[in-house]
């Protein structure tokens, strides 16, 4: 089957790119242009015509990429036309009328590249991350993964385990032969080293996932403290409704920001208080849950009525900044106990000290993202496979008796399989759908 799609994104534009891949690609180009295929990888001006009537659709550039030297590994082409909706629709309708041609599914071009051995699974994921990158940090992380450092690390680890497995299986295949003591010792040392490497990779504070998904900041606190106003001030636009009526915010309101290149997701939550209103109660539960899962909490309180007992004390224990709002109404100094906390005294009404709060947030971000080595884990999928690999290695190391080598071999096989699942060295059909469905149609 030959697939096609608009790869340059929907909407009116100066240029639109239609990508085609599959055995019928050559036939598609000949049918549309009424001419022979251009030279490989040479942009060639062609008239694009209606197949049946030869009526001109547009004039544009045609690029021909014969397989296997193409992105997908198959015969592939790109047609560059003007980006008007009518032009794109007309061209796609013509391609669809050719036998064995259909519209591509999300991520299908990159999936073909993976299945045809042009890229590994980590690179495929990084291409998706690069397309969706909103900040410089996200772009840099995606580029690093594309360059193959992660793949190289995981492949080397996998090769180490395969070598250990070969020693163990040799003992199983030739039970009458005694495995030399130095080999037994080497198996244990190498297994321990591999396990320590995995532990080191896992001990990364989840920085890769945070960069990819966004640093989560939750604005929490009692009602009418100024949480929604703070969200609007940080976002520099009206994201949340601001009202003097307590309980206005009942659901979580979320917005994405780019703070000095750091991807940030800020959430405004419902004011936390005792309420008989069932909807507000659910909002309060959501607030507490969002605070629990946040990387940083901005606990906003009214300077006139500061009460840090109960839930506020719990919220301030870890990863939190106390934001004391309405300082313009404060007529006396803050309690010394509050001054000892990580706090900022602000006035959203007078726009006072908001820059100081932003500076504190930036410092928190920078401290979170201080890492010594390249990031290797960018998705929960990677982390879970590494955890399971480590668990199977531990099980293998617990089997000290030579008689248990047959059982230990299975632990090593499973550990190796989980490493292979990260880079796509084994059958990974069950995870391909979830990965490539996140892509746009033309990629």
Give keywords.
443 residues, Gyrase A, domain 2, six-stranded mixed β-sheet, 16 helices, 12 strands, 45% helix
In short:
By secondary structure, this protein is α/β, with parallel strands linked by helices. The protein contains 16 helices and 12 strands.
Give an overview of the whole structure.
With 443 residues, the chain is α/β, with parallel strands linked by helices. The chain has 3 domains: 2-104, Gyrase A, domain 2; 127-204 and 380-436, tRNA modification GTPase MnmE domain 2 (Four Helix Bundle (Hemerythrin (Met), subunit A), Up-down Bundle), CATH 1.20.120.430; 211-368, 3-Layer(aba) Sandwich (Rossmann fold). 45% of the residues lie in helices and 17% in strands. It is built from 16 helices and 12 strands. The chain has helices spanning 25-33, 85-96, 108-115, 121-132, 136-146, 149-173, 181-202, 207-213, 227-235, 278-293, 311-315, 336-339, 354-368, 380-398, 405-423, 429-436, and strands at residues 2-6, 13-21, 44-49, 56-65, 76-83, 101-103, 215-220, 253-259, 262-268, 296-302, 320-325, 343-345. A 6-stranded mixed beta sheet has the order 3-4-5-2-1-6, covered by helices on one side. Strands 8-9-7-10-11-12 form a 6-stranded mixed beta sheet, sandwiched between helices. Strand 8 (253-259) and strand 9 (262-268) form a beta hairpin. Helix 6 (149-173) runs antiparallel to helix 15 (405-423), helix 7 packs antiparallel against helix 14 and helix 14 runs antiparallel to helix 15. The longest helix has 25 residues, at 149-173. The radius of gyration is 29 Å and the shape is flat.
